[in-house]
User: Which sequence fits this backbone?
């Protein structure tokens, strides 16, 4: 049986009470975790953060970029998830000074979730919330949506880590719309209790964004709006590297040209190496 492809699906209940977004992110998360060489709890949390960034982008800014950052408790490391409107996402792990391979980015009292999304005007909307002591990344995302976006949403994200790495990853966002009435709200509240262990749903071999949607809205008439593919990809390029170098003070560029050495630059997100020759650096001086 072929493995379901990563995708995100959007739907709305026919009574106008709920907007629902579900996502399968297994391959996307695998790609990011492999590049970052993340393991254990850190790998799991990075996968959940990437899934969460995708859900927030789909809910609040589907055609714009969303970046989510978790800052570990007591300043112990950070995680970054970067989700783009073309469906590509990437992640970054920073364990901090003195960390070992067994270290983890701790989620607990004092840990923060920062979400930045681009507005249609080009400006950035930014919100920072403390992640609740219980509930992990999912609880942090719900807190962000309610406190920073003023949107009441129920969110769950999960990444299953086994002996062979990422087994599955995905999540859902259920947004309460103004038309919601007490009856449907009570039904949905009971339904979501069955999904408190999202792990169990994702563990099935045929798990997909559509299967998750059908399970969430079983017995509730809904309209499936659209779906989009998801994948891991980095947006780095030689052009972006040169643009970054061009932003340095002229004196710094002149010093590197005088040094005469080829610069070796590695992308932190994907591990790709770039070499910049002295002649390329010299060209920046003629255009600056």
Assistant:
């Amino acid at each position: 049986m072929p493995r379901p492809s990563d995708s995100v699906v959007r739907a709305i209940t026919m009574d106008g009470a709920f907007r629902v977004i579900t996502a399968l992110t297994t391959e996307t998360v695998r790609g990011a975790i492999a590049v970052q060489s993340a393991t254990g709890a850190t790998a799991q949390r990075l996968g959940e953060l990437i899934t969460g960034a995708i859900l927030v982008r789909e809910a609040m800014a589907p055609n714009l970029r969303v970046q989510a950052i978790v800052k570990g408790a007591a300043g112990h490391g950070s995680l970054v998830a970067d989700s783009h409107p073309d469906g590509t996402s990437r992640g970054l792990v920073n364990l901090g000074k003195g960390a070992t391979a067994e270290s983890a980015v701790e989620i607990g009292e004092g840990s923060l979730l920062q979400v930045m999304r681009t507005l249609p005007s080009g400006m950035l909307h930014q919100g920072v919330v403390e992640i609740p002591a219980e509930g992990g990344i999912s609880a942090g995302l719900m807190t962000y949506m309610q406190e920073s976006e003023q949107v009441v949403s129920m969110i769950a994200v999960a990444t299953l880590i086994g002996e062979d790495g990422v087994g599955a990853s995905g999540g859902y966002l259920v947004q309460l719309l103004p038309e919601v009435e007490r009856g449907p709200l009570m039904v949905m509240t009971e339904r979501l209790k069955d999904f408190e262990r999202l792990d169990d749903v994702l563990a099935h071999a045929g798990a997909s964004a559509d299967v998750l949607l059908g399970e969430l809205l079983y017995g509730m008439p809904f309209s499936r709006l659209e779906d989009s593919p998801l994948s891991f990809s980095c947006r780095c390029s030689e052009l972006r590297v040169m643009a970054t170098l061009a932003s340095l003070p002229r004196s710094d560029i002149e010093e590197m040209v005088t040094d005469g050495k080829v610069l070796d630059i590695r992308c932190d997100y994907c591990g790709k190496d770039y070499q910049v020759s002295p002649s390329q650096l010299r060209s920046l001086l003629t255009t600056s």
Observations:
- The mean pLDDT is 86.
- The chain has nine helices and 13 strands.
- The first helix runs from residue 26 to 36.
